[in-house]
Specification:
By secondary structure, this protein is of the alpha+beta class. The protein has three helices and eight strands. The protein has a four-stranded antiparallel β-sheet, with no helix packed on it. It has a four-stranded antiparallel β-sheet with strand order 3-8-7-4, with no helix packed on it. It starts with a strand and ends with a helix.
Length: 168
């Protein structure tokens, strides 16, 4: 059984217990990662192709370590002009080992949207502003509270001056 999966912007043909070097992944050494962008799965001659990805398919891998690749030399030259530039580069890589390939039944990891905040009545905002801890507020929040409180000249005040004016 093998799969073609997209990992860190590149496509890899992977099989169970295979070690693969990929672009640096976020995660600790020894942690498990799941890739759900599986493009093709082959299982005992049965090939499933996604359009573009297979729903419910996932590849689970373990991060073995983080390392740097071989040095790549970048040499630029313009003949007869005396222009030469030599530069080197080592790519940051992660070594992963494929633990399992699930053709179906894997849950897609979706990014959770932040819950929408309902607009609170202004009377409640004034009460919460009076009891709020002004030192933890930003300058923009303090200026908004000063505007609601009817303080004149709040635009030119600094944070400490705004807190002092609001606490009076």
């Amino acid at each position: 059984m093998y799969a073609i999966v997209e990992i860190a912007g590149q496509q890899f043909k992977v099989a169970k217990d295979q070690k693969v070097y990929v672009h640096r992944l976020q995660g600790e050494e020894g942690s498990k990662v799941t890739f759900d962008n599986v493009l093709l799965v082959e299982d005992k001659g049965n090939v499933t192709i996604g359009a573009p990805a297979i729903e419910g398919a996932a590849v689970t891998a373990k991060i073995l370590g983080h390392l740097k690749g071989d040095k790549v030399i970048v040499f630029k030259k313009k003949r007869r002009k005396g222009y030469k530039k030599k530069n080197g580069h080592r790519q940051y890589l992660s070594e992963i080992q494929i633990e399992s390939i699930a053709a179906s039944g894997a849950k897609k990891t979706a990014k959770k949207a932040a819950p929408k905040k309902e607009a609170a009545p202004k009377a409640e905002v004034k009460e919460s502003a009076a009891t709020a801890d002004y030192s933890s507020m930003t300058v923009a929040e303090l200026k908004a509270a000063a505007k609601e409180a009817g303080i004149k000249g709040y635009t030119s005040l600094k944070k400490a001056e705004l807190i002092e004016a609001l606490t009076k």
